[in-house]
UniProtKB/TrEMBL annotation:
Family annotation (Gene3D superfamilies): Jelly Rolls (2.60.120.10)
InterPro entries: cNMP-bd_dom, cNMP-bd_dom_sf, RmlC-like_jellyroll
Lineage summary: Bacteria, Pseudomonadati, Bacteroidota, Cytophagia, Cytophagales
Protein name: cAMP-binding protein
Originating species: Mariniradius saccharolyticus AK6
Domain Cyclic nucleotide-binding stretches: 9-52
Length: 188
């Protein structure tokens, strides 16, 4: 799916407005294990993932607590750091070599002033992210570990081969030993 088709899942952005946005995008490459953002750093650019898998997390007693995974064609950010231009409380790191397109906060704000369609697109994308966070919160508090595992496998089965299982276990709020048992028992 190309970027314009992806955007149109959220809002039917006219091609001319998409071209305004595209003209402002830069390309960035990150190596496996490279940090994009660390706690205390302000995220100045928003990323669109073309290739690779990223993880956002915080450390709790030297143990990563996974918040989210990003992969193509999604956005990649620590949302509150980018949106409010505030220091991040979290890490954003590359689990695999990653290719992304980026736009600075200031350039995006300028585009919002120039195009109601671009502003509407990003509002709707932000709403989708918020809905996803709320859904994940409900899943963590209302589903069994097996139901959480199955829901994850329906949403992102490719990550089972790309992401260390201990990170997926953290994301799902499952002990790594129980995750391993589920992984070996349940056929996806």
């Amino acid at each position: 799916m190309d970027r314009l088709d992806y955007f149109r899942l959220f809002h039917d952005i006219p091609t001319r407005d998409y071209e305004l946005l595209r003209a402002r995008l830069g390309r960035k490459s990150f190596e496996k294990g490279e940090n994009i953002i660390v706690p205390g750093q302000v995220q100045r650019e928003l990323y669109f993932v073309n290739e690779g898998v990223q993880v956002s997390y915080f450390d709790l007693k030297e143990k990563p607590q996974v918040i989210a995974f990003t992969y193509p064609p999604n956005l990649c950010a620590i949302p509150e750091s980018f949106q409010f231009q505030a220091p991040s409380k979290y890490f954003l790191s590359c689990l695999t070599r990653s290719e992304m397109e980026s736009i600075s906060f200031d350039a995006l704000q300028d585009l919002f002033d120039k195009s109601q369609h671009i502003e509407r697109l990003f509002r709707k994308m932000t709403e989708a992210v918020l809905a996803g966070v709320l859904n994940r919160h409900v899943e963590l508090h209302s589903l069994t570990i097996e139901e959480r595992f199955r829901a994850f496998c329906r949403r992102s089965p490719q990550l089972l081969q790309l992401v260390p299982h201990k990170l997926i276990a953290s994301y799902l709020g499952i002990d790594p030993t129980n995750f391993s048992k589920l992984y070996n028992r349940i056929k996806i």
